[in-house]
Structure prediction request, 567 residues.
Amino acid sequence: MLQPWPLQVVFDSVILDKPPPRILATLAGPFWDAVSRNLLSVMIAALVLVALAASAAMYLQNIAYIRLAQATVRKLRIRLFAHVLELPVALSRRMGAGELIERITTDTDDSQKLVEGASTLLFRSIPTFLGITAIMVWVDGALALVTIVLALVLVLATYYFGVKVKGAIRRKRVHESEVATLVEAATKTHKWLKVLGLNKGEIERMEEKSDASRRAAVEAGIWQGFYVSSTNVALAAGSAVLVLFGVSRIKAGQLSPGELLVFMSYLKSLYKPIREFTKYFIKISKALACVERIEQVMALTPCDMGVCESPQAEELPSFRRSIAFDKVSYAFEAGSEVLRELSFEIPKGWKVALVGDSGSGKSTVLNLIPRFFDATRGSVRIDGRDIRSFTLESLRKRMAVVTQDLVLFSTTVRSNIALGRPEEEVSREEIVEAARAANAHDFIMKLPDGYETDLASGENRLSGGQAKRILIARAFLRDAPIVLLDEPSGGLDPASENQVMEAFDRLAEHKTVVVASHRLPVVANSDLILVLRQGRIVERGDHRALMRQGGIYHELWSRQVRARQEN
Prediction:
């Protein structure tokens, strides 16, 4: 705000030879005589010093804003990521992995514009605007009034166009999330898209989603373009009016040329916070659309997702007697039950198999035991108590889960196995013992760095059978009394299947096992086999009893035996 005043002194006192402002004499004190004799040099030096000070202040401000914005993004991203991990697994079914990735990465990154914009407006633009306006009123109230009217017009235009841009950006973000979800699904099913010849259909879906995103982005750009153009026109018109009005006041002797020069300089400076306000208001509008999407996730609670831990929940004591399903029904969405009135009991030490066609509800039954989902009706009980009365952590500590998805983390083989007991330090001897039990030790030792081989590298990819045995080793290390297996032989060749099933049999010794499988020979030695169809138990018994019944199980068994003989 000091920059125009040296110019005013040069113009009025040096060029027009008018007396210098009295404030200069007050500031110079005993040096006034020297200053008055070298007024031009002193004012030029003042111009340079003021410019240097303003540049230094701007540099420090920008550094402070960037640090604040990045610190906020880091904190917000970590909080959002931690919150997502705390929510039940049903979240990914509701939103999709691509949607969640978009919110945790892109939306949190774009939210920094809110911090940057708000900081700039609060600590620079608004104080500058108010300070310059006050000085302009002091210099000439009539001209200042014209400027204030112009500023109000710009503020109203900023609000109007900002709302339009925010709505378009919100729609664009939704479409971008749909694109991310589509890409995530396509990369997971890349091989099958090629086998089934579905590439063209997926490309068409990508075109559709991308077009929707493009239209929303273009709409936002159009509104932003309208805003910038109208702002420039309004500022130019305002400048013209002020020059015309200022010249008339000079001719009337109510304003000096130097004061008009100062006023126009301040007017130019006043445009900067107005432009900043318009620029950052647009950015803030975009950032708010991202923040709203983040808040949608942060507002979700485990209770909203159907898995809620009671404040009165207790630690699960050691597993003693049985697991029981009592008239259990489950629906992912209202009105579409995937399990209906299931009742059965699994005594301790039994191996129970869930068999049936795809979509019959086998995996859902498994997911209810560790409370990845909660029954919508009925109850799952351990030793006679509803599992919802136990803390989630203590419940899941009693279980080892091997899923059909080969989930290996981007770390070493040793660390992947050690995750079976993440809460404690595990010795190398224990890890090797678990790997031997899982028939994994021999192939691990053939890897480039043995147990220290980094699975994050694409060069160290494991086969399906090898990855499955790493998961079994993790389950051995966990040594939980309850073992849940989902499609243990899924996608394996005969040689790998034999090694995997031998390891599973060893894992199941002295454990209570619940296994879901579509391959009946894998589970024929189970103590109890439950045949599911459309979410109901239609047959139950051991292998011999079910074969004697000659029902659905007999039909499935015969079909699989014939298929194996033909192959």
User: Anything to note?
Assistant: The beta strands are 322-333, 336-347, 351-356, 377-382, 385-386, 399-402, 482-486, 512-516, 528-533, 536-541. The longest helix spans residues 199-251. The CA atoms of residues 454 and 460 lie 7 Å apart.
